[in-house]
User: What shape does this take?
Amino acid sequence: MNDVRARRKFSRSVVFAAAFALVTAATPAANALPDGLALTPPMGFNNWNTTGCAVDERIIRDTADLFVRDGLKEAGYSQVNVDDCWAEQQRGPDGRLRPNRKRFPGGIKALADYVHGKGLKFGIYTSAGTVTCAKTMPGALDHEDVDAQTFADWGVDYLKYDNCNNQGRPARERYEKMRDALKKTSRPIVFSICEWGQNKPWEWGARTGHLWRTTGDIKDNWAKLLDIVKKNAPLDAYAGPGHWNDPDMLEVGNGGMTSTEYRTHFGLWAMMAAPLLIGADLRKISPEHLDILRNREVIAIDQDAKGVQAKVLSKADGRWVFAKPLANGEVAVALFNEGGAKARISTSAEAIGLPRAAGYRLRDVWQHQDSRTTGPISAVVPPHGHVLYRVHADG
Ligand code: GLA
Assistant: This one.
């Protein structure tokens, strides 16, 4: 082989090796769906926590506008999702779902087009039952193929599939039927299993959808938030690229908790590699709460390419330590104070899994400040608060 050909062959194999490395890095684990969707936890908006059934096309369009205007799109939020109550009570003569005439006069296709026009994605909702949870529209049980095709025809990118009015039929069967129906459409659609953790979806969900609810519904109060954290945190081993535990949508900005509690909500969701679906009305949210949702350093922890959900290292006396290994070798650590009085919470660089080093940099991602340590990691944490560091080993 002459020199030129040998060089070409060599550079070709370097290119192939690099491409292969890229592909393998971006491929979901063997136990996830092979479609490459949701390799990081979905980010976006869902109207349910702010409007309930009183949803209309206005809030969806306005949210898409505000995603662009307020920098949320740039921060990584891409899904704009409609929840329950968007359809008429009866199917059309063709057996297809029909958008509610009063609240969605332009129809769903036009709405999806509008959202796509902003460079965003559109999501919709139905239930694996005879009717949805609010009972104002038909569910998809035994109508999986026609409903999946209707969604694909409209340009839907994400389906939240609820569990109400399921006639006692086995969950796995119902969710797998919709998974197969979505696949038949050939449109890439993120499949969100909203089964509330009743049949341990973390044990079968990775082969069925991209995320699964682990609990009942969130509410805009501290007790409920804590309840969900306690149920979702121990499930870390089940999460990974393309298959996520879903502790439910965000309440940040809805007014029922303090800003400290909302920061804890957002920080712990990021540590748990949870979907970040904004549940507040962005037309009315306060600048302080909007800034919580836009914190790029916290979002980066949630969206880290390694896709690991934080492990709880300790939680004695309501003093929690969470650690989340990150793709660049750093580790994120949350010191979370469940209790009603301030408390000192401590761990160390070694305990969170970092290699031995002369020193470490602690990046406080809420204060946007760096400090240094030789190993101990410790802070006095306000009641219901947390301190969130990205820790980097020197050298
Ligand atoms: C269930 C779901 C919620 C929401 C409502 C809509 O309760 O868990 O997230 O979608 O239904 O009716």
Q: What stands out?
A: The pocket of alpha-D-galactopyranose is lined by residues 48, 83-84, 132-134, 162, 194, 217 (CB under 6 Å). Residues 247 and 253 are 17 Å apart (CA to CA).
